[in-house]
Write a structure and sequence with these properties.
Length: 435
């Protein structure tokens, strides 16, 4: 159904420099594209005369903006939310997470993915980059719920054959669905050998797939790689040919100036996970320096058991505040820059241009959210962008459209029985734990 949101505040995320960042107007969607974006009421009237079947939505007291893009998560790990908290990373992985994962079925993972996607949609996330197992099974979940996704088939040193088979099945399942992409995803340079990393990259090249990988997440990882290969994680991955414009590097906490120069030279997209890094005490990624040096840095939540949610509004606020305290400079990472990381920069990580995704402009893909500004924590609106980044909450999201399809309407996910989903999740977790 075509629709038009009228008399609303529009935040297109296309402003540069001192240009006005928002204006009052209307936006219309036809098919999967934005057909009209205007402040001229006569243009709206003319459009409605030509499209009498168009659904008209009153946008007064709301703001319409591009949907948020979560560039690194493990959505199916919502089944493990709060299962093992306040534990060091390697103990967390070895003693809790990996044993639980070994007992999951593809259906369990699809169920966890469903819960994670529902949470993201309700919070205004219209695109996400995932890194997990049985992604071929999760293609159906993504198709059904309507979110845009890049699904990374993850592997360790001994599971690459399974990941390649998963990727091939996922590619087949995603055929004909332009909003679903597939990637290959080696876990990290400390869990995957040189041979298997190179094999994964060659597989990605053969199939035209992006590659995503955890990079320099913890000091322990950096020390391990240095001891084994006499290189930093970035130096090692670059030496064996993994880094290029088709690579998403998650975390990048322990990267020095030379590492950052390499990432920029290779065109690597960095996915910053502020809250996960804080919770696991991984450290503070030098995001302000990376942005100053011209790297493409995006925002992400990481998994819902290392964060413990998939809330990109919290992530924006945390990312901004963390850089300010880390640098001792309140001027770094201003609100609009953070919002660009969560929209325009995220589009690049997904393989789209900034003209097509992460912005509102005529002809762009219709991935957008409408936010209710009539909330105590959002009033008064002295600065709209600061209002959203520093005060916004997932619960403020009222409407979400992905690829032109409304998937959240009046704060409810279309076609999802939430109580039944919660019950199924609870039963699955109990069954897995009993194993």
């Amino acid at each position: 159904m075509n629709f038009l949101i009228r008399h609303t505040t529009l935040l297109p995320m296309t402003a540069e420099g001192c240009e006005p960042k928002s204006f009052t107007g209307s936006i219309a969607v036809e098919g999967n594209r934005i057909a009209l974006l205007t402040a001229v009421e006569e243009e709206v009237e003319a459009y409605l005369e030509q499209h009498p079947e168009c659904r008209v939505i009153d946008g007064r007291g709301r703001v319409v903006m591009p949907g948020l893009i979560n560039t690194h998560c493990h959505a199916a790990m919502s089944l493990q939310r709060n299962m093992a908290d306040d534990i060091a990373l390697m103990e967390w992985l070895n003693d809790y997470i990996w044993p639980f994962e070994a007992k999951q079925t593809a259906e369990d993972i699809a169920l966890g993915m469903t819960l994670g996607v529902v949470e993201m949609l309700l919070g205004g996330v219209t695109s996400f980059v995932d890194m997990y197992f049985h992604e071929a099974r999760c293609v159906e979940v993504v198709r059904r719920l309507g979110i845009r996704a890049l699904l990374g088939c993850s592997y360790f040193d001994h599971t690459i054959a399974l990941a390649k088979a998963d990727a091939e099945a996922a590619i087949e399942a995603a055929k004909g669905f332009s909003h679903i992409g597939i990637a290959i995803a080696p876990h990290a340079p400390y869990t995957v050998s040189r041979e298997r990393l190179v094999e994964g990259k060659e597989f990605a090249r053969q199939h035209g797939l992006p590659l995503m990988i955890h990079v320099a997440e913890t000091q322990a990882e950096a020390e391990y790689v240095r001891k084994k290969y006499d290189r930093t994680p970035v130096e090692w991955l670059d030496e064996i040919g993994l880094l290029d414009e088709q690579t998403i590097a998650a975390h990048c906490v322990w990267v020095d100036e030379k590492d950052r120069a390499t990432l920029k030279k290779r065109g690597v997209v960095v996915s910053h996970n502020a809250q996960s890094n804080m919770k696991i005490s991984s450290g503070i990624s030098p995001v302000a320096a990376m942005l100053d040096e011209g790297l493409c840095v995006t925002l992400a939540t990481d998994g819902p058991c290392s964060n413990n949610d998939l809330d990109m509004w919290e992530e924006m606020r945390s990312a901004a505040f963390l850089q300010k305290v880390a640098t001792g400079n309140p001027l770094v990472l201003p609100a609009y820059e953070v919002l660009k990381m969560a929209t325009r920069n995220g589009a690049r990580a997904m393989g789209y241009s900034e003209q097509e995704l992460g912005v509102l402009r005529e002809g762009a893909l219709a991935d957008l959210v409408m936010i209710d500004l009539q909330k105590p924590h959002l009033q008064p609106i002295n600065d709209l962008v600061s209002d959203l980044v520093y005060c916004g909450k997932a619960s403020d999201v009222e409407l979400v459209a992905v690829d032109g399809r409304i998937v959240v309407d009046e704060g409810k996910v279309c076609g999802v029985d939430l109580p039944a989903l919660y019950q199924a999740v609870s039963e699955a977790v109990k069954r897995i734990q009993q194993k």
